[in-house]
Write a structure and sequence with these properties.
tRNA_psdUridine_synth_TruB; tRNA pseudouridine synthase B; 19 strands; 3 domains; Pseudouridine synthase; Archaeosine Trna-guanine Transglycosylase, Chain: A, domain 4; alpha+beta; five-stranded mixed β-sheet
Length: 295
């Protein structure tokens, strides 16, 4: 029987993150399944799936930094800022130099204000932005702060035509849209741009090397489908603290512990190694945010 924990999936192209969750519910034989950060249908790579009580860890997974490999096409803009949308503008990008591309990407690195793609899952007055656009509304979402920690150019590919393809790797904060980086680079260079390929290579402490394809997971016994049991998963990406028997009883009733001087949130483990809670320190106490062994 499947217990609580994380499954690191290598998402295939053509599926939504919700499609993957639905598939994992069947494979894990439980309805209590969630994911830790949406990937567009076109995108592939790391999708963190939580099963059972581990779904309560997803709040902390979603906020982790992400890493991607991507291909940006200069010379065409699309309605979705990626290859799935209709081309809305075209310009000859063959005259754009490598130095201009490097400078354009440098300007999109660090702490920046980024306007999400209009065709995104962000809600505007209770309605998803992509639905408003599909219903014919012209929509411009307000910029928001994000951090692009690293943006490396691997290759600039030039053919005989007017488009230029730029292969990059990106490490960024949660909430960053790689599609928007492609759009903004194209806009800065005056030729338009969109994303033609995207592969997520890491979510926080969970790299692509840990991931399994859906076909590989389908071959596993449901009792052995977890990549990491819940306690092992928490140890991977949260600071840790050990509780004694009395502290374990206190946490099981939702009570606070004495502060340990740790930056939170952090995981607290019982004498038997079980994950007891995730806590944060404030007002001189370690107060539980999530309790896993409630009395």
């Amino acid at each position: 029987m499947t217990t609580d924990g994380l499954i690191i999936v290598d998402k295939p192209g053509g599926m939504t993150s919700h499609d993957v969750v639905a598939r994992m519910r069947r494979l894990a034989r439980t309805r209590r399944v969630g994911h830790g950060g949406t990937l567009d249908p076109m995108a592939t790579g790391v999708l963190v799936i939580a099963v059972g009580r581990a779904t309560r860890l997803l709040t902390y997974v979603i906020g982790a930094r992400k890493s991607y490999d991507a291909t940006i096409r200069l010379g065409q803009g699309t309605v979705t800022d990626d290859a799935e949308g209709e081309v809305t503008s075209a310009a000859d990008a063959s005259g754009v130099s490598d130095a201009q591309i490097t400078a354009g990407l440098a300007a999109l690195t660090g702490d920046i204000q980024q306007a999400p793609s209009a065709v995104s899952a962000i809600k505007v007055n209770g309605v998803r932005a992509y639905k408003r656009v599909r219903d014919g509304e012209e929509l411009a979402l307000a910029p928001r702060p994000v951090t692009v920690h690293e943006l490396i150019t691997h290759d600039v590919q030039r053919g005989a035509g007017p488009v230029v393809d730029v292969r990059v790797s990106v490490t960024c904060s949660a909430g960053t849209y790689i599609r928007a980086i492609a759009r903004d680079l194209g806009a800065a260079l005056g030729v338009g741009g969109h994303l033609t390929a995207l592969r997520r290579t890491a979510v926080g402490a969970f790299p692509l090397a840990d991931a399994a394809t859906l076909d590989q997971l389908a071959e596993r016994d449901p009792a052995e489908i977890l990549t990491l049991p819940m306690a092992d998963a928490a140890r991977r990406f949260l600071p840790q603290r050990q509780a004694d028997d009395q502290e374990t009883r206190t946490l099981s009733h939702g009570g606070p512990l004495a502060a340990a001087g740790l930056d939170g949130p952090y995981a607290v483990f019982g004498p038997d190694g079980a994950l007891l809670a995730v806590v944060s320190e404030r007002d001189g106490r370690a107060r539980p945010e999530v309790v896993f062994n409630a009395a």
